[in-house]
Every structure is written in C-alpha cells, then in structure tokens.
Amino acid sequence: MKATGGYFEMEKIAGSSGRHYHGTPYRFDCGRSALEVILKKARPSKIHLPFYTCDALLQPLQKLGIPYSYYAVDEKLECTGMAGLKKGEYIIYINYFGVKDAYCKQLVKLYGNRLILDNTMAYFFRHASPHWGFNSCRKFFGLPDGSYLQAPVPMPKTLLASSANPGLDLNFLYLRSEGYVQQGYASFLKNEEAFGQSVFAMSNYSQDALARLSHTSAKEKRIKNFSFWQKQLSHLNTLQLPVNKDAAMFYPYLPAKPIPHKLFWGNNIFLPRLWADCLHRPENFDWEKKLASELLPLPVDHRYGQADLEKILKLIFRGK
After folding, report:
1. pLDDT at residue 145, as a whole number
2. DSSP-derived pairing of the beta strands 250-253 and 296-299
C-alpha cells in the first residue's frame, strides 16, 4: 500500500528560474539556527511564546539563558491573555499550519520589530513590512535542511555562518524515493538530530535545489488540496479557520469527537502529532493539550492529488 504523509522523498518539482523564492541573503540550516541568530542580534530581556509549540523552539532560548513565559491561543489560534510588552521584551508567534498570514500581518503592525514570526509552518509567507522571521524549507520540500531568516535591520557578518552542517544525512530522501519508507525513517531521524547544537549555513545542496524548484506549481497544488479539505470538512471542524489564500503546511482538523491517530497509521497514512511535547509540561494549558492530543494535520502538499485525499477522507468518516 502506498504510504501517504510523513517525511519527504527527493524533490521532483523542477523549475528553471534560478531564483530563490525568498530574497533574503540570510540562509541557515534550520529554524533553530535562524532563531538563535535573531536572539543574539535583538538581545531580548524576555520572550513571550505560545504554549502550543514544540520543545525545539525552546532550545535557543535555553541555550542563551533568555527568560521566557507562555501565553495561550484561542479557537482561532490567535494570542489571548497577552498584555503589553515591557521594555526589552519580545513575542514569538507561530503562523500555525500556514493559515494565519493575515493575522501575522496584524501582529507586525501591533508589535513592530519586537515580534518574531515563526514561519516554519508557513514557508510561502512573505510580507513587505520589515520584520523578524524565519521558516523551514525541509518541512515543505524534499530537502535535508534550509531556513531563510527575515530581518528588519542588516545582520552583522559575525553572526552569520559560513559552513554547512556536517551532520546532515541525505539517505532518507533516496530511500523514500525508492519506496523504502520504513527503512528511511531511521535516516530521517538521524538527520533531524543533527540540528540545533551549533549555527550552520544552508547547505549548497538545498540552496541549489531551492533555486530550481517551481514554487508556483507547489503553491497551486497545496492551495487546491487545502480547498478540498475546506470543502469537505469545514462544517465539522471545531477550529475557526480563515479562508486560506496562500499555501499552507497542513489542513488542521479538530473533530468534535476524537479520532485516534493510530487509525491512520495502521493504514499507512502518517499524520503527525503536533506537538506531543506540550502534554509533558506541567503548566495548565488544557486547550493546547487538547490540540496536541486530538488535532489531525491533514496533508495538502504537492505530492498528493484528490485520490490520495479521498482515501484519508474515508478513514475520517469511518472514525467519526
């Protein structure tokens, strides 16, 4: 049975522009590296960040000894309970699933340069106003690494990296391309473990691939697949989602009655749990822990067509 979802295979969407989608010259191996560089430049006295996030986002803060506190998000995945920022404080907001573009632009107006946008789930987000932000290329394409850092001010050369991450393991891309999904997973995990210890530049492999990709084709496919889910499930989704006009990472579906992830995994459909890290933290954020436990991130990426999505839809209706 064909495996659906999960990590990517070697990228196949070819273009010929020779240009990068993001014009920034600041290119790193991963979002954690980009965030660490932002923090070193901004030097915040404290960071406010959403409780609904993975532990990886905490690593640069802990590494640099920057105090932080959590805030809650509501049914629209927007900030709630956030007071004004004190002197020297910054706020991180996640462009959840790549569906909060309009809200992110509102936050840029509200917080200015004291906002850091985590666009690891929103690769295609671009905004004309100068702002802090970073994304993740490998979460959208079959690449081993890559993150673009958006900065409102020039970055000093002393904070930039010149060498690529020597710990990258590209074998998972090849194995999945050849259909060895289970065998490639160990290589995928090995590659994931290579990130976050030090700041590295984006690899030449990923830079060359990103310059050749047809971003237009990838965006169009994602938008089309997202629209499929919106049409089929919006009336059943307990999340209040905007009509998405850009290319998302997933369609986030939160059914009224939980559907076990194992139902999908048992049918070779690898829907991730985002983010189980929340469940092990002692703080009382019940809504966020519900999201981490019950939300189903449905695939919209360019690997899949309507027949693939309909297979997943049947399982959703079976699990209702």
Report:
1. 97
2. antiparallel
Angle between helices 215-233 and 306-319 (to 10 degrees): 30
What distance in Å separates the CA atoms of residue 36 and residue 23, rounded to the nearest whole number? Answer: 20
CA dist., res. 294 & res. 156, Å (int): 43
Per-residue model confidence (pLDDT) at position 196: 85
> How far apart are alpha carbons 201 and 27 in whole angstroms?
6
> In the structure, what pLDDT confidence band is assigned to residue 222 with cuts at 50, 70 and 90?
very high
- What distance in Å separates the CA atoms of residue 194 and residue 246, rounded to the nearest whole number? 30
Q: Is the dihedral of CA 148, 209, 125, 271 positive or negative?
A: negative
- Whether residue 11 contacts residue 275, with contact meaning beta carbons closer than 8 Å, is answered with no
CA distances from 308 to 126, 135, 292, 315 (A): 29, 27, 25, 12
Task: Specify the pLDDT at position 307.
Answer: 94
CB-facing half-sphere around the CA of 48: CA atoms within 13 A? 20
**Residue 156: Cβ-neighbour burial (10 angstroms; 0-12, 13-18, 19+):** exposed
* Closest to 4 (Cα-Cα) out of 245, 287, 318, 308: 308
Q: What is the pLDDT of residues 133-161, one digit of tens each?
A: 999 999 999 999 999 999 999 999 999 99
Residue 152, both tokens: 């409102």
Q: How many CB atoms are located within 10 Å of the residue 253 CB?
A: 23
The Cα–Cα gap between 10 and 73 comes to: 35
Short-list 73, 292, 67, CA closest to 82: 73
Alpha-carbon 163 to chain mean position: 24
CB neighbours of residue 182 within 10 Å: 10
Mean pLDDT of the chain: 92
The residue type at 139? K
What is the rounded average pLDDT of the residues 103-109?
94
DSSP class of residue 239?
Answer: S
Number of Cβ within 10 Å of residue 128's Cβ equals: 7
pLDDT bin (cut points 50, 70, 90) of residue 16 is low
